[in-house]
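Dear colleagues,

As part of the handover before I leave the project, I'm documenting each prediction I ran so the next person doesn't have to rerun anything. This entry is a single chain, and its sequence is reproduced below.
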Amino acid sequence: MNNINFEEDRVQSVTQADTAKTLSDKVIELKNLEDEIGNAEKSLSELKEKAKYISNIEVPQMMEEMHITKLKLKDGESVEIKKIYGASISQGRNESDSDFLSRREKAFTWLRNQGLGDIIKNDVSVTFGMGEDDKAQQYAVLARGQGFEPVQKIGVHPMTLKAVVRERLEAGQEMPSDLFKTYAGNSTKITRRK
């Protein structure tokens, strides 16, 4: 016959309830921390946007109106305006894939025609499965001769394109706006004392 121990069952039930409450408290604590992190990240993002606006728009405008490019502060720190540049051959929001590919190819053609073809990177890669090391070695020598179709990626590194845009704009040369998204602006640089 099965003996029922009401006292032991009651203690086990109370222990399980305490464990469940502890788990529930930890889940609530975690949820609150995740909410705090989300709020802090949003706040940080807003602060960065505000600092970027002041750095790129307000301070450069004020210094330009005052006809100064560098300012030394009483505490030894200095403030100056630096030119910044950006460029991309990225797909527009409402642009179809085929329109983008066509525009990208035209951008590459333009770069080549300007003597800048060496900044275009052309990566060709082939993926082999496990145990196909011998085929990979043969492919390195024979390429397409073994019936594999390589994946080809052609592009310009963003920092390289940015440098080309900076050089061309500073030399008074144009960049076709129908092919490239370019940006030239100012940024405030504060040199802090060490």
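The beta strands are 70-72, 78-88, 120-125, 151-156, 181-191. Residues 6-65 form the longest helix (60 residues).

All the best with the project,
I.
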